[in-house]
Amino acid sequence: MKRLRLVGSAEIRVMLGGISRQRVYQITNRRDFPEPVAQLSMGNVWLAEDVEKWIAEKRSDLD
């Protein structure tokens, strides 16, 4: 059985090299960023594979 890997904004910060919380907010609110799979009281969560794919495709656009 495949385990579901979820990430929140803190993990996304790390995945993008320790960017600021404000920058994560800007990035995760882009129209082309994957939709969160859930909205929890601690914030949105995304599928890790969706975020990793997005980063691989868009990394050069973020610099």
Written account of the structure:
The protein is α+β, with helices and mostly antiparallel strands and about 60 residues long. Helices cover about 50% and strands about 15% of the residues. The protein contains three helices and three strands. The chain has helices spanning about 10-15, 20-30, 50-60; strands spanning about 5, 40, 45. A three-stranded antiparallel sheet has the order 1-3-2. A hairpin with a 2-residue loop joins β2 (about 40) and β3 (about 45). It starts with 5 loop residues before the first strand and ends with a helix.
Which radius of gyration do the C-alpha atoms yield? 11 Å
Biggest sheet record:
3 strands, antiparallel
The number of strands is 3
SSE run? EHHEEH
- SS summary, helix count: 3
Computed structural class:
alpha+beta
Keywords:
63 residues, alpha+beta, 3-stranded antiparallel sheet, 3 strands
Describe the structure in brief.
This protein is α+β, with helices and mostly antiparallel strands and about 60 residues long. It contains 3 helices and 3 strands; from the N terminus they run βααββα. A hairpin with a 2-residue loop joins β2 and β3 (about 45).
